[in-house]
């Protein structure tokens, strides 16, 4: 119970990472959620505010080592763990009647061979993969409401799928000529201490990485293919940006047949006109600072008559709409709360 209203109890695994900490921060202000436990093996015994000073005075909780017994009273469990960890924990949680929101990539791909190829590991919970619900509310809201295992989308895929999905579903663009160039702040790599993500390495520089073999390639392709009922192929190039957070994606597509501005405007209006966290800019180009600290995705487009390409632009906060905020948005749908609860202040 919280504020005298019917609510739920939640626990977070991986709460010392950037996404887990952001989920905790959002849930602290949620009127219908009490956070029971925050787990982080590397920080066990430390106060949350020791690792995240901004939370001082907002919580006295300490990180704990995880055990299934400790979440006995939790209704919903957030897993903000690196890939390959959730698959070992989810089966026991589901068996005990918990609802699970997994922020990793362990259950995003229905093809476990693709998981092995792009994540470099053999999937150890194959029997649960088919039942996992892909949690992008803008295209999958009805299935999310009844999900017990919710696979939260990746940050890059969120920035790409939302602007692309209506165009593909309505046959307005070619399916095999899609190029995505995305830039992400360093928190997208997780709370690592490797030299590649140190201040001295990233400040004042931009570089591409994992070109052609990034784990979000099959996620983008499979979700767009399933949604549009067309085989979709993308070229995806991620870049490391010298900022803390945010993702900015520029997407190049080729219109199918004659370019029609009215058709593009219409499909976006029908797809997203009532969406609480989608802000469609039309032909105005969005900027990254417009979404930082929020659960919004801003996107717009321009038509390049010289090349005949339609160019889409999108911006999200990778830790919020790209991770923790979207996870809470999904929780709200799953639990019957107002979708904006805890996410707009």
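Sequence proposed for the structure above (345 residues):
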């Amino acid at each position: 119970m919280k504020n005298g209203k019917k609510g739920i109890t939640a626990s977070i695994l991986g709460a010392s990472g950037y996404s887990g900490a952001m989920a905790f921060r959002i849930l602290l202000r949620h009127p219908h959620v009490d956070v029971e436990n925050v787990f982080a093996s590397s920080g066990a015994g430390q106060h949350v505010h020791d690792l995240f000073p901004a939370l001082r005075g907002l919580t006295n909780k300490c990180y704990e080592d995880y055990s299934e017994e400790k979440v006995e009273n939790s209704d919903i469990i957030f897993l903000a763990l690196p890939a390959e960890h959730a698959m070992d924990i989810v089966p026991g949680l589901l068996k005990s009647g918990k609802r699970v929101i997994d922020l990793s990539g362990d259950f995003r791909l229905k093809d476990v061979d693709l998981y092995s190829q792009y994540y470099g590991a053999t999937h150890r919970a194959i029997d649960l993969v088919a039942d996992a619900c892909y949690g992008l509310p803008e295209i999958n809201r009805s299935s999310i409401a009844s999900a017990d295992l919710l696979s939260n989308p990746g940050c890059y895929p969120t920035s790409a799928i939302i602007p692309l999905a209506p165009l593909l579903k309505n046959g307005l663009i070619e399916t095999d000529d899609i190029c995505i160039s995305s830039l992400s702040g360093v928190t997208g790599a997780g709370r690592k201490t490797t030299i590649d993500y140190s201040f001295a390495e990233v400040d004042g520089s931009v570089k591409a990485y994992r070109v052609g073999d990034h784990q979000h390639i099959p996620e983008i392709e499979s979700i767009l293919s399933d949604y549009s009922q067309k085989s979709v192929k993308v070229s995806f190039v991620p870049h490391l940006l010298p900022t803390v957070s945010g993702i900015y994606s520029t997407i190049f597509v080729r219109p199918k047949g004659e370019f029609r501005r009215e058709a593009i405007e219409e499909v976006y209006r029908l797809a997203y006109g009532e969406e609480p966290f989608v802000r469609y800019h039309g032909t105005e180009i969005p900027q990254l600072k417009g979404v930082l600290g929020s659960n919004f995705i801003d996107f717009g487009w321009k038509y390049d008559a010289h090349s005949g390409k339609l160019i889409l632009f999108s911006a999200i906060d990778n830790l919020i709409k790209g991770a923790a905020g979207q996870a809470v948005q999904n929780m709200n749908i799953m639990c019957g709360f107002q979708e904006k609860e805890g996410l707009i202040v």
